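User: Second chain of the day. Same drill as before.
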Amino acid sequence: MSNNNNYLTTASGTPVGDNQNSITAGHRGPTLIQDVNLLEKLAHFNRERIPERVVHAKGAGAHGHFEVTNDLSKYTKAAFLSEVGKSTPMFIRMSTVAGELGSADTVRDPRGFAVKFYTEEGNYDLVGNNTPVFFIRDAIKFPDFIHTQKRHPQTHRKDVNAVWDFWSLSPESLHQITILHSDRGIPATLRHMHGYGSHTYKWTNAQGESVFVKYHFRTEQGVKNLDVDLAAKLAGENTDYHLEDLFNAIEDGNFPAWTLKVQIMPEEDVNTYRFDTFDVTKVWSQKDYPLIEVGRMVLDRNPENYFAEVEQAAFTPGNFVPGIEASPDKMLQGRLFAYADAHRYRVGTNHQELPINRSKAEVHNYQRDGQMRFDGNGGKSVNYEPNSFDGPRETPENKMNPFEVKGFADSVAYDSEDHFTQPGDLFRLMDEGERARLIQNFADHMRDVERDEIKLRQIALFYKVDPELGSGVAANLGLAVPESAK
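Assistant: Same format as last time:
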């Protein structure tokens, strides 16, 4: 064998003598099945791709760190937030939502904003978007909503009829689609957009006192967006424009950063606030609950291997640490199951053992076996609990902080049906040019909807948001605002 230690082997470690020519029966004979190197290479190649994510399929990732700049330990006992100056390694994945792996970066679409903090108490995942709200507020509608964003079952093309049919029948989407069709709908780069936890979460301190919070990552690069025509041009010329920009910025030492701030709501305000605290289609006014600085996130290292670190990265809002808990937000409650379940299907039941997903804290549990179990699988240790063999035990001090639940088990909607005030306030905050572009973007997106009844139903909703918005979209489409909306 060569003295060179960098010799080629099969997956089992056997040296490969010829990697240029397959074994054949004679000089021109057929290939032999005994060429196990050939068979291994072809079989592995056929399996090199895992199923792409149903949503957020295409994304960019980067490593970095999060440093605490403000002591908020009176609100949460989370160890990684416990003292000013404390630094925690993290990984982020930012993505488009509706497109497939090969789709263009510069399309009008929300951007996923998923952060994994590798804390000493286990991984904490904050899985949000670049918008503070979402299209729907109950997870039972999520599969239907995403179907409208994907491809038609017959034509296999994007279906504008499905998109606007669903939105016009789901007025809770108005706030999000107003943001999406505004100038903010196409970020200039991933570095020039804010990120949000979107949902309401609960923080609990060491004394067992709780508050509710919303997360805001404010870009330090400034918010910049793309003109519609330039975005379309870039989509045709460089489908990976955002991936390229983020990678090159970090590679050049131009490390992007975000300041993390939170809004904090006392528990006693939950039942009296003018909007439902847990409705993810609504925001809390910053006049009511001002932003409080928490820390600073800096991205300073690119992945060495995209597949290992970005494609196999698995985030779930169910990855909590002591001091941070879920709220009764119905959309969040569904995501607690759906995200981890998607990873078990897509990557495997032991996806959390992969280096990019593995906790920096030691893991002690009784979960064993499953495909691709590549650690010691617990060795000879006991695999059940309770036991008499000094196995891992629960720590009562880390139990969820209780909250009151009352009422009848039933399928019920949120109390508030006011889907118009907040998007209306947002519309009226825009200057004249922003409002005109929003109206144009809505009209351009709706223009190819085949049925006027869908257009008119949506126009009626826009009119309730603000008469200028409804009338402007209607005029642009050559339609009249329905009398029933006035």
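The mean pLDDT is 94.

User: Great, on to the next one.
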